[in-house]
Amino acid sequence: MFYRQLLLALALSAASLAAQDGLFTNFDEASFYHNPALTGFIPGEATTRLQIRAREQWRTFLGNGAYRTMTTGIEQRFCGNDDGDYFAFGAHVQADWQGDPSLRRINLFGSFAYTKDFSSRYQTRLLSAGVEAGYLQFNLEQGNLTFDDQFDDPGLPDEVLGFQNLLLFDYGIGIFFTQFANAQTGHGFNLGLSAKHLGQPELNFIDNPATDNQTSVKLPTRWTVHAGGNLPTPFLGNTTVSLLGLASIQGPHNQFLSRVLLNLERTKTGDGRYLSIGAAYRMNNGVNGVGADALILVGQWNGPGYRFSANYDLNVSRLRSATNSVGALELSFFSFFGKATCIRCPRW
Q1: pLDDT digits (tens, 9 = 90+) for 294-334
Q2: Is residue 186 within a helix (H) or strand (E), and if so which, with residue range?
């Protein structure tokens, strides 16, 4: 016999997981994840960017149910009618697995951004606006679920959910402003604002109008404000300091992250190879109030036409006693290629 309370609890649990986006710590050039206005904001004069990311969180605590997120995408930008202006297109796919049995999510999105150059004689100023649209697919691995009657008789068939797969249309917008004095060094600052999931698609794995108000949930709009700057350090030669900060609000769950990177021995005329090392700190403000989440160690190797990044999260939340402070490993790879002389972007 179908045990309604168990199924409702399962559906609500799945909905609460689905109602939040996956997490990425490294938000350098994270146009796909944070702000569609960053589409085409590529270092230097390159016209194309390819990026691949992978993250795994809490394996020591959750085992096979560890949170895993992978994404890949490509962007291409083109010169506009006026010198310094450009427009860009991007496409990306992201896969996310949560828990055991797994709730799988796949994002397939396209994005477009236009960047207008408002530069003066001594400062370069760029203002970008972007939009994105695509589909979200959610899949619940029902075959790995165990229902109440199956504890007494494992031979019984699985119960049938109303939906195992959901395909939902979604869209978002963003703006981004940056100002810098020299595109080669990138000394300057930037500020961005984005809104994801403006359509607030509804998630519901049970086809029963009588219980829809209990078993369905809308994916909340995620508002993100991010800012950064690249500062010279005269006492360290060509070495620079990069400061980045982010505040992300999605329903009752808010995230705040700050990061400092030391870019070692950057040269204006060298081969473009340098090492960046630093640290980040993330806090959450959710249903249980404000709390620390992670202390993050960051390393980046920058080369001519590519960048490799590795982050390791040390769990400092109240879950650290169960995880032994082990958090997440995140790896990112970026490749930049092509050349367009009409484009002015800093080498951040």
Answers
A1: 899 999 998 888 999 999 988 888 776 666 667 788 999 99
A2: none
